[in-house]
Design goal:
By secondary structure, the chain is mostly beta strands. It has 5 helices and 29 strands. It starts with a strand and ends in a 5-residue tail after the last helix. This is L-ascorbate oxidase.
Length: 461
């Protein structure tokens, strides 16, 4: 029988999953304060498959996390590394839930506490460090003003809750203007997939109330996991703040990427234009810098997909091939990328995918439902006046998202779905730009595969 427990900065071995979260709380200022929050998830029990995600440092807050998951249901959501398993801090408002042990009995069950002074405005920096789930953040009885996304300021707008996809980071302003005799729940719940995990709870502690005083009212209710109209309403409101650099008026190149779910050798894969990315044994940068053409596919990956493809149906060809998916970009060119979502292998299934680009920010020019056609109707949906600068963008089920960036950072950069299993199942591409301008690469960075052989033969990077 499962027993109630709590999770805090867990590290397991012997096939169990790992979750680590770090956060830094800034001291409150006289009029305004700052605090940090990271949200992640944790798996109890043996894991049939261990998928590792790398630590990410988001913006300038030193908020980082490393999460290792399997494909099963998440057992706990964590806020700043702490959560509950098989019990609830708010059991009185959750039918059938067990109340977590008092902090005096089990200190790990004590909720994360955000101490605040009444009648002040705080900047709350929020980062989703999940490897699987999309999340939704809400603070009981409080409005949130979104002012920053992925390290770039946005035109402020007020919401009741914030959707966070894997890799997202936001700054929101919170004004402590509610009843000062109460504390309030901070709630984080699952979005984008059928939730089998209770929301994570923390406490917004209005001083001088005791931090152990749990809020008397029920926590905020997370919107339905498949309420995509709610998600789109939030996402579409994100616009660049005045003064943000605008995108180039036109692009030199357009790359259209169709996301499909496929099969290979009996295994489920994700594919881009029907090619599932497999990371090679030889590092991309070493291969390209040393001219080791035999380590990469000779054929260039497709830059578009059939306009006749029906994104509302499972793929007519469920099979896929593998490749390294390297797109070579000319230095300082402007590139448009269209991300097209589609039906998965099962009918009436299309998932949310947050795509993250390394080495660059991009402008999110627009979104659309259904198949991208590139016609006048699609062009009319694009925003060239104040598109937000991001490094992570979502594509909604059966929809498309269009991005624009300038290839001005020499190197080899991954562009991939930030849901960690999807990346390892093939949902990603590589952008290589001006590799000849990259300085000397440490031998230790390329000492595997064919580059190791070339180095031993006297070559250099």
């Amino acid at each position: 029988m499962m027993q109630s427990s709590c999770s805090r900065e867990h590290r397991h071995r012997g096939g169990l999953a790992i979750a680590l979260s770090l956060w830094v709380a800034m001291e409150a200022q006289r009029k305004k304060g700052q605090t940090g929050m990271s949200a992640s998830h944790w798996q109890h029990g043996p894991a049939p498959l261990l998928v590792l995600s790398c630590a990410h440092v988001l913006c300038s807050d030193a908020v980082a996390s490393c999460v290792c998951l399997d494909f099963g249901a998440l057992h706990s959501l964590l806020i700043n590394g702490r959560g509950q398993f098989n019990c609830s801090l708010a059991a009185a408002h959750t039918p059938g839930a067990n109340q977590c042990a008092a902090a005096a009995v089990n200190t790990q069950c004590a909720p994360v506490v955000f101490p605040v002074q009444p009648n002040k405005t705080y900047r709350l920096r929020v980062a989703s460090t999940t490897s699987l789930a999309s999340l939704n953040l809400a603070v009981g009885n409080h409005k949130l003003t979104v002012v920053e996304a992925d390290g770039n300021y946005v035109d402020p707008f007020v919401v009741d809750d914030v959707d966070l996809y894997s890799g997202d980071s936001y700054s929101v302003l919170l004004t402590t203007d509610q009843d000062t005799s109460s504390n309030y729940w901070v709630s984080v719940g699952v979005r984008g997939r059928q939730p089998k995990t209770a929301p994570a709870l923390a406490v917004l502690n209005y001083r001088p109330n005791r931090a152990s005083k749990l809020p008397a009212v029920a926590p905020p209710v997370t919107p339905a996991w498949d309420d995509y109209d709610h998600s789109k309403a939030f996402t579409y409101r994100i616009r660049a703040r005045a003064g943000t650099a605008p995108p180039p008026a036109t692009a030199d190149r357009r790359i259209e990427l169709l996301n499909t779910q496929n099969k290979m050798d009996g295994h489920t894969k994700w594919s881009i234009n029907n090619v599932s990315m497999v990371l090679p044994a030889t590092p991309y940068l070493g291969s390209l810098k040393m001219g080791l053409k035999s380590t990469l596919a000779a054929a260039r990956p497709a830059e578009t997909f059939s306009r006749g493809y029906d994104v509302k149906l499972p793929p007519p060809n469920p099979n896929t091939t593998v490749g390294d998916n390297v797109y070579v970009l000319a230095h300082n060119t402007t590139v448009d990328v269209v991300l097209q979502n589609a039906n998965a292998l099962s009918r009436n299934v299309s998932e949310v995918h947050p795509w993250h680009l390394h080495g660059h920010d991009f402008w999110v020019l627009g979104y659309g439902d259904g198949a991208y056609r590139g016609d006048a109707a699609d062009e009319a949906r694009l925003n060239l006046r104040d598109p937000p600068l991001r490094n992570t963008a979502v594509i909604f089920p059966y929809g498309w998202t269009m991005l624009r960036f300038v290839a001005d950072n020499p190197g080899v950069w991954a562009f991939h779905c930030h849901i960690e299993p999807h990346l390892h199942m093939g949902m990603g591409v590589i952008f290589a730009e001006a590799v000849d301008l990259v300085g000397k690469v440490p031998n230790e960075a390329v000492s595997c595969g064919a580059t190791a052989t070339a180095l031993m033969a006297g070559g250099h990077v």
